[in-house]
Specification:
alpha+beta; eight-stranded antiparallel beta sheet; about 20% helix; globular; binds 2-oxoglutaric acid
């Protein structure tokens, strides 16, 4: 019995070691495709393509334990979130009032590596295309106004976005990710990933990827989210720094210009007109 347990332990450690090595090799761009990409997904994962929108929701993309790990890791290093402005600098903006923490690019955190692997598999990209992971916290009233993740005046930018919610908020607690031009709302649901490509087939910025993080409602309500952005080239292979782009400050949510009639973004949130990404079906 003891021998069996020891063997299992050695096997587990060996697998962990290989996985971590594997990840580093990926980071160096030596390997292109993971040999067993699905091995990194938790049980019960379920994919919903939201028809015609280009947005995909993946439930159970991360586990509760992983979510807790990311929140704890980010917690000690959290700072006011920034936006990219002209000159390539990251600056604070009234358009983004949350707090964020960046994880180091070559992090040896196995939980982090696993999540990056998963997201890379979704897009069919090597993990070396991933930027450093960002983890963001929104407290009551904090938001990120409508913005794009990709801008074609920028040589190579965030072509692919994968958001992973680490907390569960009810409809009344708001905090959704709002694609105004698609009339689509993703409610923060623990473990759910929302993935989309920021370019159209011609490689231009896709106008429908305009999105905002709506403010949570309620004194003790917190929304936590992981952002994983992938570029169109390896991030670690000594690429020239991309040409800086003008700042993406986002449009004022207060104008209501991008929100359909009847949808409010502050006070009592009401999404009567929005398509809310549904729960997966039983057989999914
Ligand atoms: O937190 C969200 O729901 C969206 C975050 C976002 O749009 C971003 O960080 O670019």
């Amino acid at each position: 019995m003891r021998v069996k347990k020891t063997c299992e332990l050695i096997w587990r450690k060996l697998r962990q070691w290989v996985q971590q090595r594997h990840y580093r090799l990926f980071k160096l761009g030596w390997y292109k495709v993971p040999r067993q990409p699905l091995a990194n997904f938790p049980n019960g994962m379920s994919i919903t393509h939201i028809a015609n929108t280009g947005v995909t929701a993946i439930d159970n993309f991360c586990t509760l334990e992983e979510a807790e790990h990311f929140i704890a890791t980010a917690g000690s290093n959290i700072k006011p979130s920034a936006v990219l402005v002209d000159g390539g600098k990251l600056l604070q903006s009234e358009g983004r009032t949350s707090q964020s923490s960046f994880m180091p690019l070559g992090s040896s955190d196995a939980t982090l590596q696993n999540l990056v692997f998963r997201a890379a598999s979704v897009f069919g990209l090597p993990v070396s295309y991933c930027e450093r992971m960002s983890i963001t916290r929104y407290r009551e009233g904090e938001y990120y106004k409508a913005h794009f993740d990709y801008d074609e005046t920028f040589e190579a930018d965030r072509m692919y976005t994968c958001l992973i919610y680490l907390s569960e908020l009810t409809d009344a607690q708001g905090g959704g990710t709002w694609f105004a031009r698609l009339n689509l709302l993703a409610r923060p649901k623990l473990g759910r990933a929302i993935c989309w490509v920021n370019t159209d087939p011609d490689g231009r910025r896709h106008p429908e990827t305009h999105h905002a993080a709506l403010p949570p409602v309620g004194e003790d309500v917190e929304k936590w989210v992981v952002q994983l952005w992938f570029r169109g080239y390896p991030k670690t292979r000594g690429m020239p720094r991309p040409v800086p782009r003008p700042g993406i400050q986002g449009e004022a949510l207060a104008t209501n210009a991008v929100l359909p009639d009847g949808v409010k973004h502050s006070g009592e949130l009401s999404y009567d007109n929005a398509y809310i990404i549904p729960e997966p079906t039983e057989e999914a």
